[in-house]
Amino acid sequence: MAMMNRKLLVAGNWKMHGSLAFVDEMMSALRQSLPDQPKYDVAVFPVYIHLYEVINNKPDSVLCGAQNLSEYDNGAVTGEVSAEMLQDLGCDMVLVGHSERRIKNNESNSEVAKKFAQALKFNLTPILCVGESSVQRQGDQTFDVVWDQINTVIEHIGMESLSQGVIAYEPVWAIGTGETASAEQAQEVHQFIRSQLALNDDTIARRIRILYGGSCKGSNAYELFSMPDVDGGLIGGASLTAKDFMAICQQADKLSQGD
Fold first, then answer.
1. Domain 81-239 coded CATH 3.40.50.10420
2. Fewest C-beta in 10 Å: which of 56, 81, 100, 111?
């Protein structure tokens, strides 16, 4: 399936890390290290309380996203943050369905689909995180689990709406464990996702970006991003130091120069 000029995306998910000093240091490093107009997209996802600082100090070319959002418009939902608030602040993107939230906060596929819809309603680009546990992989359930997570969104809002977001395949067994899916393992699942989407709409299947997440670093980013259906990475641990994050960006840059 032809690539259809999908732009690579390197997205750094800081999870529950950072301080105002860290934000300042990272933004300064990105301003110094990134070209003014990179041929690939770069995004960072800080905790809610650091979003304002990132948005106001980041290079123009860097996108900023939140790690989560409420499925509700507004109201008596203490502790939650709405899509409209994120839009108002100046966010560009938002993660939905990260495996840590699916597991620790019991987020269901249906709840994730509602969050995806909320993001689109307020012009935020949602990154839909999908992936299987080690038990599910060992039980040959990878494709079923991943497709169920994606298909619930399609059933809720349709293919055209799904295509306005990004998909991130993050095998749960490779997150924060140091284990990485091989480039071939990642490609196998990415190709499956794209081929399933193509059964609904071939154009959308070729257009949508599918990121890989799970112990991606400078040393394996080039090989992973070289795969025909891998369009960048959702980076965890390696996004927490400027040196490690830029090492991944440099690999994306090398690949993007060939476009």
1. no
2. 56
Q: For residues 216 and 237, what is the distance between their CA atoms, to the nearest angstrom?
A: 8
Classify strands 166-169 and 125-130 as parallel, antiparallel or unpaired. Answer: parallel
The pTM assigned to this predicted structure is 0.96
Which among 192, 198, 115 has a CA at the least distance from the CA of 147?
192
Residue-wise pLDDT for 203-250, tens only, equals 999 999 999 998 899 999 999 999 999 999 999 999 999 999 999 999
For the chain, the domains span 81-239
- Provide the annotated binding site: 13-15, 176, 215, 236-237
Instruction: Render pLDDT for 132-176 as a digit per residue (tens, 0 to 9).
Output: 998 999 999 999 999 999 999 999 999 999 999 999 999 998 877
65 CB neighbour count, 10 Å cutoff: 25
Determine the Cα–Cα distance for residues 88 and 73; give it in Å rounded to an integer. 13
Residues forming the active site: 98, 170
| CA–CA distances in Å: residue 256 to residues 74, 148, 253 | 40, 32, 5
CA dist., res. 32 & res. 216, Å (int): 23
Residues tagged in the binding site annotation for substrate:
13-15, 176, 215, 236-237
